[in-house]
Amino acid sequence: MAELGSDIQKAAALLRAGELVAIPTETVYGLAANAMDQSALVKIFSVKNRPAFDPLIVHVSETAAFTHYAEDIPSIALSLASEVCPGPVTFIFRKKPVVPDLVTSGHATVGLRVPDHALTLELLKSLPFPLAAPSANPFGFVSPTCAMDVQEQLGEAIPYILDGGPCRIGLESTIIDFSGSDPQILRLGGLSLEFIEDRLQRPVRVRTSSSSPRAPGMLSSHYNPGKKVLVGNITELVEKLAGQKVGVLAFRQAIPGLPTDNQRILSLSGDLQEAARNFFRMLREFRTLPVDLVLAEKLPEVGLGRAINDRLRRAAADTDTRPQAGLSPGE
Ligand code: TXA
Ligand code: MG
């Protein structure tokens, strides 16, 4: 099992020695390594069982560091960054040669992000290198939003988890690609499309499909909670599946006539931020509930609702073709 604690010096010493450390961010927990150290990077891919074609985000302590690792940074990106960083957004720019190809999976671009978490910012400031960090879950499974989630899934494989409490946002960062002529969103996430379009003063194309070569990691099948997931109008789904042992992941209210123990409500008040914060934790809980499948309600397609719906679609995608292991390695 990994040691859990909030000792930044310990985390820093392990990272300097080329080890992996799980780190808290405002979005989800990350599995961090020295982004400049090839052999530490290899450990990330092997511990996560992540395909080498899926590039890693590089975490830095301030936007001023973007120019160390990227070039051709458009001024609209810099002004957006100055407003939203630290925050739940990843910027894709053309990379400088200093960034190892392992980080970018050989692509000409690099993803940069300033996470908004006091412990991790202090850690980054204390290190002479940036941190490459994917979400701290085995590839294809649900992202971790607290230290114990990481312990359950990867605790056997890493020495230390920097425990920064539950994640404030609960969904991964929004990824915006500024490497082409027009900015494009490659992953919906913690910063809403509406906010971004408002700040950039233009409509922004969302290209999150797995067929897009610009978003190599956006596989249609992802976020596997270990149970089959169906998304749609819950009342209709419940009627259609009468007699089956179903769990319900609803937005605001439980479905009458079904055991409440097998239902999870994302936000009784209909608050999309609260729903986002609860989303991955509740999705995980179905793994141990006595249900055969999970019926999930589609959320309003606005703000963080879009990002939650995107993850629901991926959680529901071709479950049968994915590894049927549970959430932790070895199951
Ligand atoms: O909120 C987050 O972004 C979290 C925390 C830990 O920072 N990290 C995260 O990492 O979600 P990960 O590896 O689970 O997802 C990163 C996504 C992948 O889909 C990857 O393909 C994409 O970012 N990505 C990274 N670099 C890229 C690049 N140069 N071009 C296109 N996509 C990139
Ligand atoms: Mg991930």
Amount of helix: 25-40%
Q: Point out poorly predicted stretches.
A: 320-331
**How is the biggest beta sheet arranged?**
12 strands, mixed
How many distinct beta strands? Answer: 16
The global form is globular
Number of helices: 11
Ligand list: threonylcarbamoyladenylate, magnesium ion
In whole angstroms, the N-to-C terminal distance is 16 Å
Percent of sequence in beta strands: 15-25%
- Encode the helix/strand succession as letters: EHEEHEHEHEHEHEHEEEHEEHEEHEH
Q: How does this structure look, described?
A:
The structure is a single chain. The chain is of the alpha/beta class. It has helices at residues 8-16, 38-48, 66-69, 75-84, 101-104, 118-126, 147-154, 193-200, 234-240, 272-285, 303-316, and strands at residues 3-5, 21-23, 30-34, 57-59, 70-71, 89-95, 109-113, 131-132, 160-162, 174-177, 184-187, 205-206, 228-232, 246-250, 263-265, 293-297. The strands form two sheets. Strands 1, 2, 3, 4, 5, 6, 7, 8, 9, 10, 11 and 12 form a twelve-stranded mixed beta sheet that branches. The structure holds threonylcarbamoyladenylate and magnesium ion (MG). Residues 25, 27-28, 30, 54-57, 90, 92, 104, 107, 109-111, 113, 115, 133-135, 172-173, 175, 186, 214-218 line the site of threonylcarbamoyladenylate.
